[in-house]
Amino acid sequence: MAPKAVVLLSGGLDSYTAAAIAKTENFALYALTVAYGQRHAVEIRAAREVSRALGVVEHREIAIDLASLGGSALVGDGAVPKDRPLEDASIPATYVPARNTLFLALALAWAETIGARDIFVGVNALDYSGYPDCRPEFIVAFERLANLATRAGVEGARFSVHAPLITLSKAEIVRAGARLSLDYGLTRSCYDPQAGARPCGRCDSCRLRARGFAEAGIVDPLMASNG
Question: Under 8 Å CB-to-CB from 78, ≥6 apart: which residues?
């Protein structure tokens, strides 16, 4: 029987790729998508499409109201920055306080419940907009917490938090997905989608995605379909 893995699935390019890598490692996938009040809720619909494409065992959606706490342009607290220099290392207004900590905690809770010991997350420490919860030291720290703070961990099980994209550039991620024949046309990355879910093309996420496809020498099927 294949070991179970909980995969955090946002509907974006990175989480799709990380989940697909988990599948190639013969894990049975249990996908978790979090609706947290994000203005780009189109990604939740994309996550449903991606989960079907991956053939996950189960896909769950959990709602938490981070918009009520504010602190991020992604939950409507201010405008989404546009046309920022991609080399700008400052933490942008799209940072959501403690988001990945909360998401991984939810994934850990489900993993312990279903007897999974592996969690996959698509964080990336190179093309990541400067978010502090996308760094390797954060993943290491959370894995240590997972094994200290759970009954399964105390009783001798070991949780592993996998971040297979952590050291890859966006172009390397796109190439990895191409090797796996992933349909990136299913994904959505824009922080501030326009009418008809059309990408704005100017937010950090759109620009990092565009640069990744350009550097990989691959046409983004999402942009091709939008003309």
Answer: 93
Range list of H helices, the chain: 13-24, 42-54, 99-114, 136-148, 151-154, 170-179, 204-216, 221-225
163 φ, ψ to 5°?
-130, 75
Q: List the Cα angle 103/105/110 in 5-degree steps.
A: 100
Whether the pTM exceeds 0.90: the reply is yes
Taking residues 183-203, report their average pLDDT. Answer: 91
3-state SS of the chain: helix, strand, coil percent to 5?
A: 45, 10, 45
Domains of the chain: 4-225 (3.40.50.620)
Phi-psi region of 137 (alpha: psi -120 to 50; beta: other; left: phi over 0): alpha
